[in-house]
Amino acid sequence: MAKTTGASRSETRSQSSDVIHVPEPKLHQRAHELQPYGHVVKLPIALSQTACETSIELLNQILADTMTLRDMYKKHHWQVVGPTFQSLHLLYDEHYDKQVELVDTLAERIQLLGGVSIAMAADVAEMTMVPRPPRGREEVPVQLSRLLEAHEIVIVAARSAARKANELGDFGTNDVLVSDVLRTNELQVWFLAEHLIDASLAVTA
Ligand SMILES: [Fe+2]
């Protein structure tokens, strides 16, 4: 049962002594969770309980790592330094936008499987497999290396989860993991990794 704190002044009297009901917002409401994290409420999508539970658990791990990678892109977008500032500043934000889309796709896949998606930063920080970078600025090669390592964590998990989802007949999750997560991450790895090749604009004699 929801509770409201604070005095209610929803009733007042007019000059003619008629009671007037003035609607007021009921603030600071709290209640029991509708569905605890980890609890699956099956929807009629013709998948077994085991398939749903397995996919939800795998997807939540990939979601936590994707949210971390997303936020690392914004960190580097703000903190990038050096002669490649302009191009990387823009590239990081392009990749960030794609990761934002992936986060929503993953979270909504978890919900439609009957699960609860991980959402808040503190919970994500506890779950993620991506190593935490320092708060301060780092050089471009370090930024790129950290991003590539985070992408590879997501790629390994996505391939493994896609295989498992297929075995369980959860082809929708397999499609999300392959068509969205895997392909996006592989493409972004290409765009990043090319920056770490030491190529000159002049042919060496
Ligand atoms: Fe910006």
From TrEMBL:
Q: Name one GO molecular function term.
A: ferric iron binding
Asked if the Swiss-Prot or TrEMBL record annotates the protein with the keyword Cytoplasm, the reply is no
Polar residues compositional bias: what residue ranges?
Answer: 1-18
The record's annotation in InterPro entries points to: DPS_DNA-bd, DPS_DNA-bd_CS, Ferritin-like, Ferritin-like_SF, Ferritin_DPS_dom
The UniProt record lists the Ferritin/DPS domain at 56-197
Region (Disordered) location: 1-23
Gene3D superfamilies tied to this protein: 1.20.1260.10
List UniProt keywords, sorted A-Z: Plasmid
Q: Which family does it belong to?
A: Belongs to the Dps family.
Q: What is this protein called?
A: DNA starvation/stationary phase protection protein
Source organism per entry reads: Paraburkholderia dioscoreae
